[in-house]
Each structure stands twice: as structure tokens, then as C-alpha cells.
Design a protein that fits this description.
Blueprint lengths: L16 E4 L6 H16 L6 E6 L5 E4 L5 H4 L2 H7 L2 E4 L7 E3 L3 E9 L7 H18 L5 E3 L3 E6 L2 E13 L2 E9 L4 H7 L15 H4 L7 H12 L1 E5 L4 H12 L2 H4 L4
Parallel strand pairs: 1-2, 1-11, 3-4
Antiparallel strand pairs: 2-6, 3-5, 6-10, 7-8, 8-9, 9-10
């Protein structure tokens, strides 16, 4: 982990982070919750950083905010396999979620303007990388926002992450592949329109790997990475319901970029 200069701001506010203990029913609701928490942080209604994890109960394709469906997704395969398609509030490329893929989110308020994007990536991924290494998984940062692990001499991706930045708040969230159905990825996602150098043109099947830690251990690792020792159970349920109606469950919003 890099050494911080004296004038660097801490990645999380003083006092550590809160662990949000909530179990929402679907992917749309969880994406809406991430956006609702970002709004609270930006509007100065969320004063402690919040950390949470969740897992989709069924395979679901999640588009980036600017992803074009036909470019990144095999829509016919999704229809044939019954895989739903939704869109998230953050950037980056399309991913497939489902059982065995742990999602993690961190929402942080910044009294001053939010840091530069490269710094946000570092301040979020370096603690997580260190915690995973301490747990026995020697991951490394690759590309702008990936974590990878060596398998048979080649680095394979185990985590891809994205962010949404507002002036006074940051939402950082992503995947942790643990016991995921990796072959399914190649069935529903096309080769991405852009890729980090370390991928070297490999298809999904040769590029992805599972951490194989088990959900409890992986969640404990995320909590340890961000010092999330205090629990919170309250969440903005009314705002989440509104966002699901207005965006995340609306096919027109999901399909606005073909």
C-alpha cells in the first residue's frame, strides 16, 4: 500500500465506517439503495461512511450507466436463459451477478470536493487488497479498478469495480467473485469493447477466477478493510422504492442506450 503524504485526506472520515446490515430482495432494489445512500451523503444527511455487501439471488446482467446493450450483452441468450438485464448508476462495463458473486459498496461524504477519480480507486482498492492478502488471497491491483490473482502463472480477475462521484460524495461498489458460475459469463456477455492490458485479449473463461473463501469470511474481510465495526440497520426505504419505480425497474430507463 502506498504511503500517504501528510496533506492527504483519509479515505474514510474519522471515527471509522458503519456496517449497513440490510437484506433487500432484488438487484434493482440494491442498486437503488446505493444511489439513495449517495444522495444522503451528498446532501449532508449521512455523516459516517457506510459499508455493505449483498448478493443477487439469481443471475442478472448489470449494465454500466453508459453501456450500450447490444455492444456488451447477448440479449437473445439472456432471454433464452431467463437472465434479467438492469442498469446501475455508476460507470464501467457490463457485469453478470448472481449467487457466489459478493457485491460490496462504500459510500463516503466529502466535506470538501470529492478527490480525483484515480485517488478514489486507490483509497478504496488498496485497503481491500491488503485485507484479502491478509486473509490468504494474494490479490493485486490491475487496470484502473480490478483486483486479480495468479492462477497457473496467469493473472485472473476476481473483482471489478465502478464509482459514481458527486461533488461532496462518492459511491464505490463492485464485485468479488467467490463461487460464481464463471462459464455463464461467456454465454450472456460479449467480449468487452475495451479491456485492461493484462487481459491480453483473453475470453471470459480464461480471464476470470473465484476467490473461494465463502461468504462469511469474505464479508468479514470487507468489514476489516474499512474498519466497519459499528452496525446500522436504518435505510432510506421510501427513496429506494421511488428510485425502483422511476428507474431501476423501468425497461425504458434500462434500455435507453442500445
Amino acid at each position: 500500500m502506498r504511503q500517504r503524504n501528510a496533506d492527504d485526506a483519509a479515505p474514510l472520515p474519522a471515527g471509522g465506517a458503519h456496517w449497513l446490515d440490510t437484506d433487500l430482495p432484488g438487484v434493482a432494489e440494491n442498486l437503488a439503495l446505493d444511489e439513495a445512500l449517495l444522495e444522503e451523503a451528498h446532501d449532508d444527511r449521512l455523516h459516517q461512511a457506510l459499508v455493505r455487501t449483498w448478493m443477487a439471488s439469481e443471475p442478472t446482467v448489470v449494465l454500466g450507466s453508459s453501456s450500450r446493450i447490444e455492444e456488451e450483452v447477448d440479449v437473445a441468450a439472456c432471454a433464452r436463459l431467463g437472465v434479467r438485464i438492469v442498469r446501475r448508476p455508476s460507470g464501467g462495463l457490463t457485469v453478470l451477478l448472481g449467487p457466489g458473486c459478493l457485491m460490496w459498496s462504500v459510500v463516503v461524504r466529502h466535506v470538501q470536493a470529492a478527490p480525483a477519480i484515480d485517488r478514489v480507486h486507490a483509497e478504496m482498492l488498496e485497503p481491500l487488497c491488503a485485507a484479502l492478502c491478509a486473509a490468504g488471497r494474494p490479490v493485486v491491483r490491475r487496470g484502473s479498478s480490478d483486483l486479480a490473482i495468479a492462477v497457473d502463472g496467469l493473472e485472473r480477475k476476481v473483482s471489478g469495480n465502478a464509482l459514481r462521484v458527486r461533488r461532496h460524495a462518492v459511491l464505490y461498489h463492485g464485485t468479488l467473485l467467490d463461487s460464481f458460475d464463471l462459464p455463464l459469463v461467456a454465454q450472456v456477455l460479449r467480449h468487452p469493447p475495451r479491456e485492461p492490458g493484462y487481459r491480453a485479449g483473453r475470453g471470459h473463461g480464461d480471464f476470470l477466477a473465484n476467490l473461494e473463501m465463502g461468504r462469511p469470511a469474505l464479508e468479514a474481510t470487507v468489514r476489516a478493510a474499512f474498519g466497519a465495526e459499528q452496525f446500522r440497520s436504518a435505510w432510506p426505504d421510501q427513496r429506494v422504492a421511488a428510485l425502483v419505480r422511476e428507474r431501476y425497474a423501468d425497461p425504458a430507463w434500462t434500455c435507453r442506450l442500445r
